[in-house]
From TrEMBL:
GO BP annotation list: response to amino acid
Keywords, in A-Z order: DNA-binding, Transcription, Transcription regulation
GO cellular component: cytosol
Domain of life of the organism encoding this protein: Bacteria
An MF annotation (GO) of this entry: sequence-specific DNA binding
Pfam family, one: AsnC_trans_reg
UniProt keyword annotation of Metal-binding present: no
Record-linked InterPro entries: AsnC-type_HTH_dom, Dimeric_a/b-barrel, Tscrpt_reg_AsnC-like, Tscrpt_reg_AsnC/Lrp_C, Tscrpt_reg_HTH_AsnC-type_CS, WH-like_DNA-bd_sf, WH_DNA-bd_sf
Residue ranges of domain HTH asnC-type in the record: 1-67
Lineage of the organism: Bacteria, Pseudomonadati, Pseudomonadota, Alphaproteobacteria, Rhodobacterales
Protein name: DNA-binding transcriptional regulator, Lrp family
Length: 142
């Protein structure tokens, strides 16, 4: 991947719906170059898909936390699916080390966060948890 590929990916991170013409103008290359670069990035697996962000995806929840979970036995997939279906859960990650899962949670109030934590702790198979509140966030640049 060269500098042009990196700049193309950055442009797509900002606006994945940009037209070939818009991308070509922004990058100072032809539409054909943009099209062939996109095709090559998809074929190589560098671009694995496209998605849509909704208002809910980008809305900041005032209270955010990470909940680390230890799961008993082989119930990780079942528990992961159940937690991911909760409205307040932004993402669930499987991991290695001491914890089996990490849930990213966002709520409007501490009381709502507390209720979500209790709901998750009551799920059969969750044996231990630890939660950390997120105080500030700095996002990396693409």
């Amino acid at each position: 991947m060269d500098d042009l590929d990196s700049r193309l990916l950055s442009a797509l991170h900002r606006d994945a719906r940009a037209s070939l013409s818009e991308l070509a103008e922004l990058l100072g290359v032809t539409r054909t170059t943009v099209r062939s670069r996109l095709q090559r990035l998809k074929q190589s697996g560098e671009i694995v898909g496209f998605t849509v962000l909704t208002r809910r995806d980008v809305a900041q929840s005032p209270v955010r936390g990470l909940m680390m979970l230890e799961i008993e036995g082989r119930g990780t997939e079942r528990i992961m699916a159940r937690i991911a279906a909760m409205r307040q859960v932004r993402a669930v990650h499987s991991t290695n080390g001491s914890w089996d899962l990490i849930a990213e949670i966002g709520t409007e109030t501490l009381a709502e966060l507390d209720e979500v934590l209790f709901q998750i702790r009551r799920i059969e198979g969750v044996t231990r948890s630890e939660t950390n509140l997120l105080l500030s966030t700095r996002k990396g640049r693409y």
